[in-house]
Specification:
The protein is an alpha/beta fold. The protein has helices spanning 79-87, 103-111, 130-140, 159-170, 225-229, and strands spanning 6-9, 18-24, 28-34, 41-43, 52-58, 73-74, 77-78, 95-100, 115-118, 144-150, 175-182, 187-190, 193-196, 213-224.
Length: 237
């Protein structure tokens, strides 16, 4: 986070509802309700904003393919550290969170100076979708109005890409997500037939004459709370 952030407390909260009263400069009393474990929460009481803009990285410990894949190292750094460090370069963000169910991932997140949200068991299974993890996070963080989901399995993520998404959302967009333009000619098999999906057989396009298609690459998804309340990550707005 930027230099303007004020680190008020570093606590572990494990009760169902803990009330914490803090005095800031002898003038400000802050009462915070916490339902989950909170780690190193950066907060600036002088910042007055209508919309709280948060970044969330879902990083559960379980993985059938690669054990603790979010801690796998690329170029000497873990996938999670790469993503978090790029996120921490962003402007206009109020808080950064790693949602996890694993102590090692939580420890790395804390070392990178971001908040830890302890993920509920039902949202951290192999069958649980990212949407379920997002809904669970927002349920416990009602202050968040706009959320950016960053996938830490994208090692080539850049803060410049993320900043563009942040800017779009701050300009009133309902959602923004990462996509790659593809120039592949696609087919579908129907019974014993092959059907072209995105081109005309009689007018097979050259690459320079083909606009291509936009394909999600999964690097990030930004959206409003209102969109998630409708049960979707994206809209056409």
């Amino acid at each position: 986070m930027g230099h303007e952030e004020i680190y008020l407390f570093n606590i572990h909260c494990h009760s169902d509802m803990t009330h914490i009263s803090l005095l800031f400069l002898g003038l400000l009393s802050v009462i915070i309700d916490t339902r989950l474990c909170c780690e190193y929460f950066p907060w600036n009481p002088l910042r007055d904003k209508n919309n709280h803009f948060a970044i969330l990285v879902l990083a559960r410990g379980g993985s059938k393919g690669i054990k603790l894949k979010n801690l796998s190292r690329v170029g000497g750094n873990s996938l999670l550290a790469i993503s978090v460090r790029e996120v921490n370069k962003l402007r206009g963000i109020d808080s950064v969170w790693v949602s996890t169910d694993h102590e090692k991932i939580a420890e790395l997140a804390e070392n990178e100076n971001v908040n830890v949200h302890w993920r509920a068991p039902e949202s951290a299974t192999d069958e649980a979708s990212s949407l379920l993890g997002i809904i669970e996070f927002l349920k416990h963080h009602p202050e968040v109005d706009i959320l950016g989901l960053v996938q830490c399995t994208s090692p080539f993520i850049k803060s410049s890409y993320l900043q563009q998404a942040v800017n779009h959302m701050q300009n009133g967009k309902e959602c923004t997500f990462a996509a790659t333009r593809s120039y592949k000619l696609r087919w579908q098999k129907l019974g014993d037939r092959l059907i072209p999906l995105n081109f005309d057989l009689k007018k097979r396009p050259r690459r320079q004459d083909f606009d291509g298609e936009l394909v999600e690459n999964g690097m990030f998804y930004f959206f409003s709370r209102r969109l998630i309340q409708q049960g979707v990550l994206q809209s056409n707005k």
